[in-house]
Amino acid sequence: xxxxxRGREGGLVQPMAPFYxxxxxxxxxxxxxxxxxxxGAFFVIVLILVAVVPQAFTxxxxxxxxxxxxxxxxxxxxxxxxxxTDELGRDLYARIxxxxxxxxxIGFGVVVLSQLLAITFGTLSGFxxxxxxxxxxxxxDIGIAVPGLVFIIxxxxxxxxxxxxxxxxxxxxxxxxxASSSRTVRGVxxxxxxxxxxxxxxxxxxHDLRVMVRHVVPNLTAIAIVSASILVGNAVLIExxxxxxxxxxxxxxxxxxxxxxxxxxxxIRAPHLAIFPGLVIFMxxxxxxxxxxxxxxxxxxxxxxTR
Length: 307
Hints:
- With 307 residues, this protein is mostly helical.
- The protein has a single domain, classed as MetI-like fold (Orthogonal Bundle).
- It is 68% helix and 1% strand.
- It contains eleven helices and two strands; from the N terminus they run ββααααααααααα.
- The chain has a two-stranded antiparallel sheet with strand order 1-2.
- A hairpin with a 5-residue loop joins strand 1 and strand 2 (12-13).
- Helix 1 packs across helix 2 (35-52).
């Protein structure tokens, strides 16, 4: 028999249902309240699965995204090649599927590194204040003033030969995004430091590091989650732009932006080379943005119940 707990007023409180029973109900409630966010979440989950196990989403005959067949070049979409073939006879669908891994690695890598940098330095700047805050904010102003695309290209061209294209892109995008994100984190950290529970922790003898770790950073979780979901889409879009300009992932590694770049010469003869990668980029960015908006409305107490 399940034991019922007593509340603070002495009444009986119903025991909480197990997680595996609450989860489907929570998912259904989220989908009903935020339908666009649910669609975005579904596409994001599918995209992650495609990136992890691309072989499961490609027919056996077209799993090799590097296989060339000049006799089959620039074929239109068919039952054999669902998205057609490129100028080298490679299956476009297989290359798009395998290109998802590149986009997911860059997107999530950029978000994790940029959010760590933003939360660390933004919290320190807002919590410590004084000379450290002044110097750090002036450095942030300089970083934001630098043209983003020029900065990324400069860093990628400098570091790509030493650490590879993928790591160079992740590092450059993380530095660029963390500069603006840290400003938002600093503003939230400044407001949190004025709360009474922070003053109470200090009066009890808690040192600054403990206050930041136990009281400031946990209150930044909701903002970090929402920001991360939107930044993944932005990182994918920027990487696609870099690859389109020729400064991103280099061939033969499949990349959606590189596919668009390669399609420029064949736009009239084979428009499918640009249509399908463009649609995938659009759906990826749109899905992450819709998911981010839904999470913002869900996690922000001021916006709950507005829909």
